[in-house]
Write a structure and sequence with these properties.
The chain is α+β, with helices and mostly antiparallel strands and about 290 residues long. The chain has helices at about 30-40, 40-45, 60-70, 80-85, 85-95, 110-115, 120-140, 140-145, 210-215, 235-245, 260-265; strands at about 10, 15, 150-155, 160, 170, 180, 185, 190-195, 225-230, 250, 275, 285. The chain starts with 7 loop residues before the first strand and ends with a strand.
Length: about 290
């Protein structure tokens, strides 16, 4: 270490101040490099047409800035100021132009104005963006996918609590929390989030379940056998009929209603068999 400006000593270490700009967000460069290889910005600009004027940030620059903020832990538009005030990240963007795909980050106000312009058609444009990118990712994964013999879909819902009930769709959910009630579908073998859909807080998951499953099926390889796992929120005659129609093996937690328990208890002992994966622990019967 240089002895030019030594402020003090701690053990065998010299303590000094240097005019060096640091950033704890440098790792985002690797994520953005992968996004560049997939052509994410190109797909966004081709599919989205939210802006009415050409000036200012493009759709891809705005979306990538917002996504980057979320990856780094941002939870609201004001968190964009963290990136805007990080000189190290700004220098990295200026020199390499790969960190966020732009040399600047939109202000929270500018981003809010853009988001308010999104309508339902723009949301479906984003769905097309995701389908296109999922296809490109599958091309990268084609060798690992060749060894798979099944596509297991885990579907679930969650409640995203909000601080206000004045937001559109933010209302009281089944657990008493005020917020949104999105649906998710994960591909178990790859860990990929295949499909998501935002619903109002008071909506029941099963109300959109069949539509959601149809959309999910479009986003996974058609040549792999399908399996479905879900909790009791998706315990519905329509969901079961969908699984049977699409030849999908399913496991859905059932509501333990009195009539159902009565039928289970009435099954004779000989029809119960040990589950092939939980021998001696779990038994199944039809």
């Amino acid at each position: 270490m240089s002895d030019d400006i030594v402020l003090g000593r701690a053990g065998q270490f010299n303590v000094q101040v240097r005019d060096v700009t640091l950033s704890n967000h440098a790792g985002i460069v690797m994520i953005r490099s992968f996004a560049d290889r997939l052509g994410v910005s190109e797909v966004l600009d081709n599919e989205l047409s939210v802006k009415q004027r050409e000036r200012g940030f493009t759709e891809s620059e705005s979306v990538m800035s917002l996504v980057t903020s979320m990856i780094l832990g941002g939870s609201c538009l004001l968190d964009l100021n963290v990136l805007r005030g990080d000189q190290g990240t700004q220098m990295l963007m200026t020199s390499q132009k790969v960190a966020l795909g732009t040399t600047q980050v939109p202000s929270p106000t500018t981003m809010g104005e853009l988001l308010r312009k999104f309508d339902l058609g723009d949301i479906w444009d984003l769905h097309r963006v995701m389908q296109t990118l999922q296809g490109r990712v599958r091309l990268v994964q084609r060798q690992s996918l060749q060894g798979m013999d099944c596509c297991t879909l885990d579907i679930d819902s969650s409640v995203y609590e909000q601080a206000s009930d004045q937001k559109a769709g933010s209302c009281r959910a089944y657990n008493g929390e005020i917020g949104y009630h999105p649906l998710f579908a994960f591909w178990h073998e790859t860990g990929e989030l295949v499909m998501s859909h935002l619903m109002r807080g008071s909506a029941h998951p099963v109300s959109k379940a069949v539509w959601f499953l149809n959309q999910t099926l479009k986003r996974v390889p058609g040549d792999l056998p399908k399996k479905l796992r879900a909790d009791s929120a998706f315990y519905s005659r329509d969901v079961v009929a969908w699984c049977e129609h699409n030849k999908t093996t399913f496991g859905i937690t059932a509501d333990q209603t009195a009539p159902l328990i009565e039928k289970i208890e009435a099954l004779p002992d000989p029809v119960w068999q040990d589950h092939h994966l939980r021998h001696g622990v779990v038994q199944v019967a039809e």
